[in-house]
Amino acid sequence: MVVSNSLNLPTEEELTVQEVNLSSSSLRAASFHLGKYCENINNEFMLCRSENPQDPRKCLEEGKAVTNCSLDFFRKMKKNCRQEFETYAECIDKSSTNFALTPCRKTQGVYDKCVLEKLNIERPYWGYFAQMKVHDTKRPRPQIEEQIYPDASDKLSDDAPRTDAKYQGRYIFQ
Predict the structure, then answer these.
(1) Which domain holds residue 57?
(2) What does the pLDDT average to over 103-123?
(3) Label partner for 10 (CA 20 to 30 A): which of 4, 146, 152, 165?
């Protein structure tokens, strides 16, 4: 990748945020409730990324907001349902080699009940995050530059030379 001197890269301070320093089993245990808790902020970030696929620098603030939301969620989890969460995450970690949730349904029930009672977050049903949803945003829609190719022809001429097919006929599937 070639970079010129006129390209403004973000500073180290702009890129540095506190990380969510948890194990895979802990993230897997909290995934449904975390996704529900930070849904709007994450949707805003994903919308920004889909609108700016060539320049991720435009979405740094939205990315920081997602990380801060995750940290806030885990702080509340630690304060309210720490024991149930740790039991459920340990079960996920030690009961299978691929972090399967199936062997831990009893501990999941206790954990879900605690999160519902103390954080008022109901575990979303299976497939909730795969459903299409409309996200309402305050951000202005980006201006899409229409690309015009002046040398493009309207269509190919009918008298263009056509060679015979090298292997079998061209219309084998018709």
Answers:
(1) 21-130
(2) 95
(3) 146
